[in-house]
Amino acid sequence: MTENNLAIANIPIQQWGGLYNQEEALNIGTIFHDLNKPFFAAEAVTGSKNPIAPEAGNQGKSNIQIEREGLMTRITQLGFYLDDLTLYLDTHENDTQGIQLYHEISKEYAELRKQFAQNYYPLSRLCIPYCINDNETAFCWQEGPMPWEGACI
């Protein structure tokens, strides 16, 4: 058997830099400009606001459905932003800009999830206390669609 040589990887430490807004970040896949390294064959993201789930239009949708989907999209964008910030803060736990932004977005994210539960149904167990219904002793978890239904109805 021949002798194996180990490879040595050199990965520079990420620096705080320019950030995408929440809508762009979800579409691109990172909040950091410096980490946007598309494959050479990939084209720039253009066209649909959300290439992951392109908008099918609002034909046949009620105003309530349009509002609900808009709020859900905003919650998804903020959730992604928080996930990417968390990954950054795992290795940069003393970065004051990152920590401040994390707290700001966390508050907005929590408020939007509370608003969604109050207006429609809970998105997680933590949102159940915010459900508003006629009977305060009712358990509202079953009011929304099941996760496998794949819709914001």
TrEMBL record:
Highest taxon listed in the record's lineage: Bacteria
Domain Protein CotJB: from-to ranges: 71-149
InterPro entries according to UniProt: CotJB_dom (IPR024207), Spore_coat_CotJA (IPR020256)
Name the record gives this protein: Spore coat associated protein JA (CotJA)
Organism listed in the record: Anaerocolumna aminovalerica
